[in-house]
Amino acid sequence: MKKRLATVLSMMTTLLLGLTCTAGAAEKPNVAILATGGTIAGSAASDTATTGYKAGALGIDVLINAVPEIRNYANVTGEQIASLDSKDMSDAVWLKLSKRVNELLAQKNVDGVVITHGTDTLEETAYFLNLTVQSRKPVVITGAMRPATAISADGPMNLLNAVRLAACPAAHDRGVLVCLNDQIDSARNVTKAHTTSLAAFNSPLGPIGCMNDGTPTFYNMAARKHAGHTEFDARNLSSLPYVKIIYGHANDDALFVDAAVRAGVRGIIYAGTGNGSIHKDAESALARASEAGIIVVRSTRVGGGTVIPAEQSYIDAGFLDGDSLSPQKCRILLQLALTKTTSRSRIQKMFHEY
Ligand code: ASP
Fold this sequence. Notes:
Blueprint: H1 2-20, E1 30-37, H2 60-65, E2 75-84, H3 91-105, E3 112-116, H4 122-132, E4 139-142, H5 155-166, E5 177-180, E6 183-186, E7 191-192, E8 201-202, E9 209-212, E10 215-218, E11 243-247, H6 255-262, E12 267-272, H7 280-291, E13 295-300, H8 312-317, E14 320-321, H9 327-338, H10 344-353
Parallel strand pairs: 1-2, 1-3, 3-4, 4-5, 11-12, 12-13, 13-14
Antiparallel strand pairs: 5-6, 6-9, 7-8, 9-10
Helix pairs in contact: 3-4, 4-9, 6-7
The structure holds aspartic acid (ASP).
Protein backbone atom coordinates (compact mmCIF):
# COMPACT_ATOMS: atom_id res chain seq x y z
CA MET A 1 0.00 0.00 0.00
CA LYS A 2 2.73 2.38 1.12
CA LYS A 3 4.72 1.47 -2.00
CA ARG A 4 1.76 2.22 -4.29
CA LEU A 5 1.19 5.59 -2.58
CA ALA A 6 4.86 6.45 -3.06
CA THR A 7 4.66 5.51 -6.77
CA VAL A 8 1.54 7.67 -7.27
CA LEU A 9 3.17 10.60 -5.44
CA SER A 10 6.32 10.24 -7.51
CA MET A 11 4.28 10.14 -10.75
CA MET A 12 2.39 13.29 -9.69
CA THR A 13 5.65 15.06 -8.85
CA THR A 14 7.12 14.13 -12.24
CA LEU A 15 3.97 15.40 -13.95
CA LEU A 16 4.01 18.65 -11.98
CA LEU A 17 7.71 19.17 -12.64
CA GLY A 18 7.10 18.51 -16.31
CA LEU A 19 4.23 21.01 -16.43
CA THR A 20 6.10 23.78 -14.65
CA CYS A 21 8.96 23.38 -17.13
CA THR A 22 6.76 24.38 -20.07
CA ALA A 23 5.92 27.80 -21.46
CA GLY A 24 2.90 29.77 -20.33
CA ALA A 25 2.80 28.60 -16.68
CA ALA A 26 0.66 31.10 -14.71
CA GLU A 27 3.59 32.33 -12.61
CA LYS A 28 6.85 32.39 -14.48
CA PRO A 29 9.99 31.63 -12.49
CA ASN A 30 12.51 34.44 -11.96
CA VAL A 31 15.91 33.71 -13.42
CA ALA A 32 18.93 35.99 -13.04
CA ILE A 33 21.42 35.86 -15.93
CA LEU A 34 25.00 36.76 -15.05
CA ALA A 35 27.34 37.41 -17.96
CA THR A 36 31.10 36.95 -17.88
CA GLY A 37 32.00 37.25 -21.60
CA GLY A 38 33.22 34.49 -23.92
CA THR A 39 32.39 33.55 -27.48
CA ILE A 40 28.67 33.58 -26.72
CA ALA A 41 29.15 37.35 -26.51
CA GLY A 42 31.76 37.37 -29.28
CA SER A 43 31.71 39.63 -32.29
CA ALA A 44 33.58 38.90 -35.54
CA ALA A 45 34.24 41.03 -38.61
CA SER A 46 32.30 38.65 -40.88
CA ASP A 47 29.36 36.28 -40.40
CA THR A 48 31.40 33.31 -41.62
CA ALA A 49 34.28 33.86 -39.19
CA THR A 50 34.40 31.39 -36.31
CA THR A 51 37.86 32.35 -35.10
CA GLY A 52 39.71 35.65 -34.81
CA TYR A 53 36.75 37.38 -33.13
CA LYS A 54 36.65 39.45 -29.97
CA ALA A 55 35.26 37.35 -27.11
CA GLY A 56 33.03 39.13 -24.59
CA ALA A 57 32.37 42.13 -26.87
CA LEU A 58 28.57 42.17 -26.51
CA GLY A 59 26.74 43.08 -23.30
CA ILE A 60 24.19 40.88 -21.56
CA ASP A 61 21.21 42.99 -22.72
CA VAL A 62 22.16 42.36 -26.37
CA LEU A 63 22.30 38.60 -25.71
CA ILE A 64 18.94 38.53 -23.93
CA ASN A 65 17.20 40.74 -26.50
CA ALA A 66 18.44 38.47 -29.29
CA VAL A 67 16.33 35.63 -27.84
CA PRO A 68 12.88 37.10 -27.02
CA GLU A 69 11.50 33.53 -26.59
CA ILE A 70 13.32 33.42 -23.23
CA ARG A 71 10.53 35.54 -21.75
CA ASN A 72 7.99 32.79 -22.51
CA TYR A 73 9.66 30.67 -19.86
CA ALA A 74 10.98 33.04 -17.20
CA ASN A 75 11.17 36.60 -16.00
CA VAL A 76 14.83 37.38 -16.57
CA THR A 77 17.21 40.05 -15.37
CA GLY A 78 20.74 40.53 -16.74
CA GLU A 79 23.93 41.55 -14.95
CA GLN A 80 27.42 41.93 -16.33
CA ILE A 81 29.95 40.42 -13.90
CA ALA A 82 32.91 40.52 -16.33
CA SER A 83 33.61 40.74 -20.07
CA LEU A 84 36.41 38.25 -20.46
CA ASP A 85 37.81 35.75 -22.87
CA SER A 86 37.60 32.91 -20.37
CA LYS A 87 41.21 31.88 -21.01
CA ASP A 88 41.92 34.88 -18.75
CA MET A 89 39.61 33.78 -15.93
CA SER A 90 40.94 34.60 -12.47
CA ASP A 91 40.33 33.75 -8.81
CA ALA A 92 39.12 37.35 -8.34
CA VAL A 93 36.31 36.93 -10.89
CA TRP A 94 35.40 33.54 -9.41
CA LEU A 95 35.07 35.05 -5.95
CA LYS A 96 32.97 37.93 -7.25
CA LEU A 97 30.73 35.56 -9.22
CA SER A 98 30.30 33.09 -6.38
CA LYS A 99 29.38 35.88 -3.95
CA ARG A 100 26.81 37.29 -6.35
CA VAL A 101 25.26 33.88 -7.09
CA ASN A 102 24.96 33.24 -3.35
CA GLU A 103 23.38 36.68 -2.77
CA LEU A 104 20.86 36.18 -5.56
CA LEU A 105 19.85 32.65 -4.62
CA ALA A 106 19.34 33.70 -0.99
CA GLN A 107 16.53 35.95 -2.24
CA LYS A 108 13.06 34.39 -2.11
CA ASN A 109 12.09 35.87 -5.47
CA VAL A 110 15.04 34.37 -7.41
CA ASP A 111 14.36 30.82 -8.60
CA GLY A 112 17.53 30.11 -10.53
CA VAL A 113 20.70 31.57 -12.03
CA VAL A 114 22.19 31.27 -15.52
CA ILE A 115 25.79 32.22 -16.21
CA THR A 116 27.09 32.94 -19.69
CA HIS A 117 30.77 32.09 -20.01
CA GLY A 118 33.56 31.41 -22.47
CA THR A 119 33.97 27.72 -23.13
CA ASP A 120 37.73 27.51 -22.48
CA THR A 121 37.50 27.48 -18.67
CA LEU A 122 33.74 27.03 -18.34
CA GLU A 123 34.18 23.67 -16.59
CA GLU A 124 36.49 25.22 -13.99
CA THR A 125 34.10 28.04 -13.09
CA ALA A 126 31.26 25.51 -12.97
CA TYR A 127 33.19 23.33 -10.51
CA PHE A 128 34.27 26.31 -8.40
CA LEU A 129 30.61 27.34 -8.07
CA ASN A 130 29.58 23.72 -7.45
CA LEU A 131 31.86 23.82 -4.40
CA THR A 132 30.96 27.29 -3.13
CA VAL A 133 27.26 27.90 -3.82
CA GLN A 134 25.25 27.39 -0.66
CA SER A 135 21.86 26.98 -2.35
CA ARG A 136 20.13 23.98 -3.97
CA LYS A 137 18.31 26.17 -6.49
CA PRO A 138 19.35 25.59 -10.12
CA VAL A 139 22.58 27.16 -11.36
CA VAL A 140 23.27 26.61 -15.06
CA ILE A 141 26.34 27.67 -17.04
CA THR A 142 26.29 27.99 -20.78
CA GLY A 143 28.43 29.35 -23.59
CA ALA A 144 28.87 28.99 -27.32
CA MET A 145 31.43 27.74 -29.78
CA ARG A 146 30.49 30.24 -32.50
CA PRO A 147 30.48 34.00 -31.99
CA ALA A 148 27.12 35.76 -31.80
CA THR A 149 27.72 37.29 -35.25
CA ALA A 150 28.24 33.94 -37.06
CA ILE A 151 25.75 32.18 -39.32
CA SER A 152 24.23 29.34 -37.26
CA ALA A 153 25.54 30.78 -34.01
CA ASP A 154 24.87 28.28 -31.23
CA GLY A 155 24.65 30.88 -28.43
CA PRO A 156 20.95 31.84 -28.74
CA MET A 157 19.64 28.25 -28.47
CA ASN A 158 22.13 27.46 -25.70
CA LEU A 159 20.98 30.53 -23.75
CA LEU A 160 17.31 29.66 -24.22
CA ASN A 161 17.93 26.07 -23.08
CA ALA A 162 19.95 27.25 -20.09
CA VAL A 163 17.12 29.54 -18.96
CA ARG A 164 14.53 26.79 -19.46
CA LEU A 165 16.72 24.46 -17.41
CA ALA A 166 17.30 27.00 -14.62
CA ALA A 167 13.56 27.73 -14.54
CA CYS A 168 12.70 24.06 -14.16
CA PRO A 169 12.07 22.65 -10.65
CA ALA A 170 13.45 19.30 -11.85
CA ALA A 171 16.88 20.96 -11.97
CA HIS A 172 16.72 21.61 -8.22
CA ASP A 173 19.51 20.07 -6.09
CA ARG A 174 21.50 18.59 -8.97
CA GLY A 175 24.61 20.67 -8.37
CA VAL A 176 25.80 23.26 -10.85
CA LEU A 177 24.82 22.21 -14.37
CA VAL A 178 26.51 22.85 -17.70
CA CYS A 179 24.16 23.07 -20.68
CA LEU A 180 25.35 23.41 -24.28
CA ASN A 181 24.39 21.68 -27.52
CA ASP A 182 21.24 20.11 -25.97
CA GLN A 183 23.33 18.25 -23.39
CA ILE A 184 23.21 18.62 -19.59
CA ASP A 185 26.41 17.77 -17.72
CA SER A 186 27.36 18.00 -14.08
CA ALA A 187 29.98 20.58 -13.19
CA ARG A 188 32.14 17.92 -11.57
CA ASN A 189 32.43 15.64 -14.55
CA VAL A 190 32.27 17.80 -17.64
CA THR A 191 35.25 18.84 -19.71
CA LYS A 192 35.83 20.67 -22.97
CA ALA A 193 36.88 17.87 -25.30
CA HIS A 194 37.02 19.48 -28.74
CA THR A 195 38.71 22.69 -29.85
CA THR A 196 36.11 23.87 -32.38
CA SER A 197 33.14 21.48 -32.71
CA LEU A 198 29.68 22.53 -31.52
CA ALA A 199 29.66 19.24 -29.60
CA ALA A 200 32.63 20.45 -27.57
CA PHE A 201 31.66 19.23 -24.11
CA ASN A 202 31.85 15.72 -22.82
CA SER A 203 31.66 13.95 -19.46
CA PRO A 204 33.91 10.87 -19.31
CA LEU A 205 31.53 9.46 -16.66
CA GLY A 206 28.48 10.33 -18.78
CA PRO A 207 26.20 13.39 -19.07
CA ILE A 208 23.38 13.66 -16.54
CA GLY A 209 20.63 14.61 -18.96
CA CYS A 210 19.62 16.31 -22.15
CA MET A 211 17.29 18.98 -23.46
CA ASN A 212 14.63 17.18 -25.49
CA ASP A 213 13.26 19.87 -27.80
CA GLY A 214 13.81 22.32 -24.94
CA THR A 215 12.48 20.16 -22.12
CA PRO A 216 15.05 19.10 -19.51
CA THR A 217 15.23 15.34 -19.10
CA PHE A 218 17.49 13.77 -16.47
CA TYR A 219 18.97 10.29 -16.52
CA ASN A 220 21.71 10.42 -13.87
CA MET A 221 22.34 12.02 -10.49
CA ALA A 222 25.28 14.14 -9.38
CA ALA A 223 26.36 11.64 -6.73
CA ARG A 224 29.22 13.62 -5.15
CA LYS A 225 28.69 16.50 -2.69
CA HIS A 226 27.74 19.61 -4.62
CA ALA A 227 26.18 23.08 -4.37
CA GLY A 228 23.93 23.33 -1.33
CA HIS A 229 25.81 20.49 0.43
CA THR A 230 29.28 22.01 0.54
CA GLU A 231 31.56 22.89 3.45
CA PHE A 232 33.40 25.51 1.40
CA ASP A 233 32.33 29.09 1.79
CA ALA A 234 33.91 31.70 -0.47
CA ARG A 235 31.73 34.57 0.75
CA ASN A 236 34.36 35.90 3.14
CA LEU A 237 37.42 35.09 1.04
CA SER A 238 39.34 37.76 -0.83
CA SER A 239 41.94 35.44 -2.37
CA LEU A 240 42.64 31.73 -2.83
CA PRO A 241 45.75 29.66 -2.00
CA TYR A 242 48.36 29.38 -4.74
CA VAL A 243 48.21 25.92 -6.34
CA LYS A 244 49.93 24.99 -9.63
CA ILE A 245 49.54 22.10 -12.05
CA ILE A 246 52.64 20.36 -13.43
CA TYR A 247 52.19 18.19 -16.52
CA GLY A 248 54.10 14.90 -16.56
CA HIS A 249 55.80 13.66 -19.72
CA ALA A 250 58.63 11.43 -20.96
CA ASN A 251 62.02 12.89 -20.03
CA ASP A 252 60.45 14.96 -17.21
CA ASP A 253 62.67 16.42 -14.52
CA ALA A 254 62.66 18.49 -11.33
CA LEU A 255 62.68 21.92 -13.03
CA PHE A 256 59.03 22.98 -12.65
CA VAL A 257 58.57 21.34 -9.25
CA ASP A 258 61.58 23.20 -7.84
CA ALA A 259 60.44 26.45 -9.47
CA ALA A 260 56.95 26.05 -7.98
CA VAL A 261 58.41 25.44 -4.53
CA ARG A 262 60.64 28.53 -4.84
CA ALA A 263 57.59 30.57 -5.92
CA GLY A 264 55.84 29.65 -2.66
CA VAL A 265 53.00 27.40 -3.83
CA ARG A 266 50.87 25.76 -1.14
CA GLY A 267 49.94 22.84 -3.36
CA ILE A 268 50.99 21.02 -6.55
CA ILE A 269 48.78 18.93 -8.80
CA TYR A 270 50.89 16.52 -10.81
CA ALA A 271 49.05 15.58 -14.02
CA GLY A 272 50.81 12.26 -14.27
CA THR A 273 50.90 9.59 -16.91
CA GLY A 274 48.49 6.64 -16.62
CA ASN A 275 47.22 6.10 -13.07
CA GLY A 276 48.87 9.30 -11.81
CA SER A 277 52.37 7.93 -12.40
CA ILE A 278 55.27 10.27 -11.82
CA HIS A 279 58.62 10.37 -13.63
CA LYS A 280 61.32 9.36 -11.14
CA ASP A 281 63.20 12.67 -11.51
CA ALA A 282 60.07 14.70 -10.82
CA GLU A 283 59.10 12.30 -8.03
CA SER A 284 62.15 13.01 -5.90
CA ALA A 285 61.53 16.76 -6.23
CA LEU A 286 57.86 16.29 -5.31
CA ALA A 287 58.84 14.20 -2.28
CA ARG A 288 61.06 17.08 -1.09
CA ALA A 289 58.18 19.51 -1.64
CA SER A 290 55.81 17.27 0.29
CA GLU A 291 58.36 16.96 3.12
CA ALA A 292 58.43 20.77 3.26
CA GLY A 293 54.65 20.86 3.83
CA ILE A 294 53.39 21.41 0.28
CA ILE A 295 50.33 19.28 -0.53
CA VAL A 296 50.99 17.13 -3.61
CA VAL A 297 48.02 15.57 -5.41
CA ARG A 298 48.44 12.93 -8.12
CA SER A 299 46.10 13.42 -11.02
CA THR A 300 46.32 12.16 -14.59
CA ARG A 301 46.70 13.55 -18.07
CA VAL A 302 44.73 10.55 -19.46
CA GLY A 303 41.30 12.22 -19.52
CA GLY A 304 39.32 9.40 -17.96
CA GLY A 305 39.35 6.97 -15.05
CA THR A 306 40.22 7.32 -11.38
CA VAL A 307 43.64 7.87 -9.87
CA ILE A 308 43.96 5.26 -7.12
CA PRO A 309 46.81 4.41 -4.73
CA ALA A 310 49.72 2.90 -6.62
CA GLU A 311 53.42 2.88 -5.65
CA GLN A 312 54.38 2.54 -1.99
CA SER A 313 56.85 5.41 -2.52
CA TYR A 314 53.92 7.76 -3.31
CA ILE A 315 52.19 6.75 -0.09
CA ASP A 316 55.42 7.13 1.90
CA ALA A 317 55.94 10.63 0.45
CA GLY A 318 52.40 11.64 1.53
CA PHE A 319 51.08 12.27 -1.99
CA LEU A 320 47.28 12.36 -2.22
CA ASP A 321 45.09 10.81 -4.94
CA GLY A 322 42.98 13.11 -7.13
CA ASP A 323 40.16 10.56 -7.62
CA SER A 324 38.46 11.03 -11.02
CA LEU A 325 38.85 14.82 -11.15
CA SER A 326 40.77 16.34 -14.03
CA PRO A 327 43.98 18.15 -13.03
CA GLN A 328 42.28 21.53 -13.46
CA LYS A 329 39.47 20.50 -11.11
CA CYS A 330 41.92 18.96 -8.61
CA ARG A 331 43.52 22.40 -8.48
CA ILE A 332 40.24 24.07 -7.54
CA LEU A 333 39.34 21.51 -4.88
CA LEU A 334 42.82 21.76 -3.36
CA GLN A 335 42.63 25.58 -3.33
CA LEU A 336 39.36 25.42 -1.41
CA ALA A 337 40.51 22.55 0.81
CA LEU A 338 43.52 24.63 1.86
CA THR A 339 41.18 27.40 3.04
CA LYS A 340 39.90 24.88 5.64
CA THR A 341 42.81 22.65 6.65
CA THR A 342 46.33 21.42 5.94
CA SER A 343 45.59 17.92 7.25
CA ARG A 344 46.42 15.44 4.51
CA SER A 345 43.88 12.90 5.69
CA ARG A 346 41.11 15.53 5.75
CA ILE A 347 42.06 16.76 2.30
CA GLN A 348 42.19 13.20 0.93
CA LYS A 349 38.68 12.63 2.32
CA MET A 350 37.49 15.74 0.47
CA PHE A 351 38.86 14.33 -2.79
CA HIS A 352 36.73 11.22 -2.21
CA GLU A 353 33.60 13.22 -1.33
CA TYR A 354 33.42 16.11 -3.83
N1 ASP B 1 38.25 31.77 -25.95
C1 ASP B 1 36.80 31.75 -25.78
C2 ASP B 1 36.51 31.87 -24.30
O1 ASP B 1 36.69 30.92 -23.60
C3 ASP B 1 36.27 30.51 -26.37
C4 ASP B 1 34.78 30.33 -26.23
O2 ASP B 1 34.08 30.99 -25.50
O3 ASP B 1 34.27 29.40 -26.90
O4 ASP B 1 36.11 32.90 -23.84
